[in-house]
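[Protein data]
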Amino acid sequence: MHFIVTGGAGFIGSHVTEQLLSEGYNVTIVDNLTTGRRQNLTKHPRLKFLKKDISACKPEDFPDQIDGIAHLAATPSVTESWLHPLEAHHNNLSATISVMQLIQALKIPRLVFASSAAVYGNPIQVPVTEDHPTSPLSPYGLQ
């Protein structure tokens, strides 16, 4: 089984990658290293790294059968979404569209997508459950 992990050199992505490798998966990380760090990754014979923006990827970048994709690439900052809204939009929304196009082209059967608590704004109740009403207060929460 083979998974792509976008943002795999980031905090969450590197941990997801470690877990997938420990369960016997082959993993291809796609990360442009704008926020992720190569040192977050351990060398492993079943790990392949593409230093690339997911939006620049084409189906031919993945010659092997892909069984799933964990889409974790993002600009993970409310502040950055205010300071650089177009860049945050590209990194978050446009990148997700690119992932969906890869899923369609490669017929990838599984998607793992991580969102953010920023979609809830100021929560009405704590703990916040996934069915809590959304009320984003920033561009990041909208993406």
